Amino acid sequence: MSVMRLVTAAAAAVLLSSCAATRFETPELSVVDIRLQQSDVFQQRLKVHLRVQNPNDRALPVKGITVSMDLNGEEFAQGVAGEPFTVPALGEAEFDMLLTANMAGAVLKLLSGRQGDRNADALEYRMRGEISLASGFLRSIPFEEKGTLKLADLRRGR
Predict the structure, then answer these.
(1) pLDDT, the chain, mean
(2) What gap in Å lies between CA 129 and CA 26, rounded to an integer?
(3) Is residue 54 included in any domain, yes or no?
(4) Mean pLDDT score, 113-140
(5) Quick one: 68 exposed, middle or buried, by C-beta within 10 A (0-12, 13-18, 19+)?
(6) In this structure, is residue 93 part of a structural domain?
(7) Does the pLDDT of residue 49 top 80, yes or no?
(8) How confident is the model at residue 16 (pLDDT cuts 50, 70, 90)?
(9) Which residue segment(s) compose the domain that 131 sits in?
(10) N or C: which terminus of the chain carries fewer CB neighbours within 10 A?
(11) Residue 114 lies in a domain
(12) Local confidence band at 68 (pLDDT 50, 70, 90 cut-offs)
């Protein structure tokens, strides 16, 4: 009976240590650049260059990403990226994705509502979505990122 307790205790110790070893921190996404690719009355296509930073000690095999972007609290654009890539352990990777904004009126509303705003040269943005992983215990990682876009940079195509 004492051998059985010893085996059970050893198995429990292994399980607990493996749980501690699989502690996972959410990667950080940040916007590096946004460029207008195409625009008409019905929709705008934006090329967004993003950086993913992986604070974990294992590589992240990314299968795809879905993103929704708000500007000043207004829903603005959505997009998906299905090109697989790997973010190295304790490293970073950059990639491009296309976002589609099908609310030209929302852009006009955002810009016209900022006439008396002393921060009229910038827009607050929020990106949220999910990173889909190709393998591993976790299959998707939700994310949210907030920041400010300077209108002068967007006008210059930066």
Answers:
(1) 76
(2) 12
(3) yes
(4) 76
(5) middle
(6) yes
(7) yes
(8) very low
(9) 25-155
(10) N
(11) yes
(12) very high
What amino acid occupies position 96? D
Residue at 143: amino acid letter: F
Structural domain contains residue 7: no
DSSP character string of the chain: -HHHHHHHHHHHHHHHHHHHHT---PPEEEEEEEEEEEE-SS-EEEEEEEEEE--SSS-EEEEEEEEEEEETTEEEEEEEE---EEEPTT-EEEEEEEEEE--HHHHHHHHHTTTT-TTTTEEEEEEEEEEEESSSS--EEEEEEEEEEEHHHHHTT-
Place of tokens 């910038």: 122
Q: Which of 120, 125, 114 is nearest to 151 (CA)?
A: 120
What total number of domains does the chain contain? 1
145: domain CATH number?
Answer: 2.60.40.10
Would you state the pLDDT for residue 129? 92
16-20, 68-72, 78-82, 105-109: least confident range = 16-20
What integer pLDDT is reported at residue 120 of this predicted model? 64
Q: Is the pLDDT of residue 112 over 60?
A: no
Q: In the block, which residue shows the tokens 């195509």?
A: 157
Residues in the chain: 158
